[in-house]
Amino acid sequence: MQKPIATTRSATGIPTGRLAVWWVLASEVVIFGGLLASYLMFRLGHPEWADAAAVTNTWIGAFNTLVLLSSSFTAVLAHQAAENGDGKLAARYLLMTIAGAATFLLVKSYEWASEIVHGYTITTNGFWSFYYTAAGLHAAHVLAGAVIMGFIAADAARGKELHRVELIGIYWHFVDVVWIFLFPLLYIAK
Amino acid sequence: MSSHSERKDEHDAHHPDYKKIYVTLLVLLVISVAGPFFGIVWVTLITAFGVALVKASLVVQNFMHLRWEKRIMKWMLATSLVLMIMLFAGVAPDVMKHEGRGWVNDAAVAAVTRGIEAPHHEGEATAEEEGVVEGGASEEAAAPAGQAFDAKTAYATVCATCHGPTGAGDGPGAAALNPKPANFGGAAFWNGKTDDELVKVIREGGAAVGKSPLMPAWGGLYSEAQAQALVAYIKTFRK
User: Fold this and answer.
1) I want to staple A81 with a disulfide (CB 3.0 to 4.6 A). Which of A12, A76, A89, A129 is the partner?
2) Would you give the end-to-end CA distance of chain A in angstroms?
3) Which among B69, B73, B92 has the least Cβ separation from residue A41?
4) In chain B, which residues have their Cβ closer than 8 Å to the Cβ of A27?
5) ipTM reported for the complex surpasses 0.85
6) Across-strand partners of A9?
7) DSSP for B129-164?
8) How far does CA A140 lie from the centroid of its chain?
9) What are the chain B neighbours of A46 within 8 Å (beta carbons)?
């Protein structure tokens, strides 16, 4: 009960911390949604983009999807552990989630590096511009989530602020959901 | 699911079988990767986007616990989604269409033409290789790979928009233009015109030779040689 502000209930009946995370996500829906919707309308108007999309590596995209789905799984297990009052276990699951984030970013850097040396940069054409913007904004969210998760895991390991484990989890699942849509848009639709 | 709905905090009480959901997500992932191998467009669309919707909803409902969340939260998120769909519905028609009543998006039409005519369409190269040719290419570099250049197709997709399919200056875009696009059928047009002058107009625009500035410069799209091929082609309209 050190931080009653985030655990008491707001007028909505939702703990204020969780309410705040939902608000963040509601605005993220518009940020990512607007970006993906713009991509979609340009893609539909430009059949030639399919040639650029043909270059993206489906296997790398699929592997990163697997990584993010797995990290969501460990994030929700952390949430469950936190609710059972097991901060140590929650912290361990959060560390596994962070490892997933690190794997995702490493694979992403390898992927981008090989694309850039082949001459596909953010200025090559419209497709690559969207590719780097959308995946880049998403990767920034992965990085931010991993950093915050580190702080929360450190607290959780000492049994402190366990309610935050759920909050970072909700955010993390959202980042996963964004990738679930980016994957078919950038990799599968050739 | 809501067998034990305690008054105090319904939200926290629910933990579905996460492992089962995780395995379902992995199976769906395999399906979405396998989809394109059938080579049928609608199958790919379903396995790519239909499956993505199912995956997203599984994550949102069970991992984010939205199904046990207070109703106000669902409405709030739904509002965000609806706003986004309104943005798409409002903007998409103008972006996806490249011409309409009295307007033509020249740059978009040219970009499509440039992309469709890119040389790799002729080759047998693998996706990776052809991408290397095309991907690093700036507008200038895309043009010289000339063996695939077909003046007739280029005319039909780019020039005919204003100059008309038979060169009579009566394309769909002509209605909005003043002065009107040149009529390649008339003797008046050819009077005293040199090839070099026409190549210059195609590559640098009408304004470069004191003609209508509404004739865009296509130098980024067509090399010198390709512009010459276009000049040779429009001569066939001469009556």
Assistant:
1) A89
2) 53
3) B92
4) 80
5) yes
6) A15
7) HHHHHHHT--HHHHTT-GGG--HHHHIIIIIHHHH-
8) 8
9) 108, 111-112, 115
Q: Whose CA is closest to A33, among B227, B87, B92?
A: B87
Q: What is the pLDDT of residues A3-22, one digit of tens each?
A: 556 667 777 788 889 999 99
**Domains of chain A and any CATH numbers:** 4-188 (1.20.120.80)
Contact A28, A39 (CB under 8 A): no
8 Å CB contact between A170 and B38: no
Backbone angles phi, psi at A188, to 5 degrees: -85, -40
**DSSP H or E stretch at residue B225:** helix B224-234
| Distance, CA of B212 to CA of B206 (rounded, Å) | 5
Residue pLDDT, tens place only, B132-183: 444 444 443 443 333 467 888 788 878 887 888 888 888 877 877 778 888 8
CATH 1.10.760 matches B103-237: yes
CB contact under 8 A, A183 and B79: no
What is the distance, to the nearest Å, from the Cα of residue B79 to the centroid of all Cα atoms in its chain? 29
Contact B25, B59 (CB under 8 A): yes
CA distance B70 to A115: 44
For chain A, strand residue ranges (E) read none
Alpha carbon distances (Å) from B212 to A95, A124, A162, B91, B187? 66, 31, 71, 31, 19
Domain limits, CATH 1.10.760, in chain B? 103-237
Q: Round to whole Å and give the CA distance between B38 and B43.
A: 7
B220: closest CA of chain A, how far (Å): 14
> Is residue A15 reached through a cis peptide bond, with omega within 30 degrees of 0 on the bond before it?
no
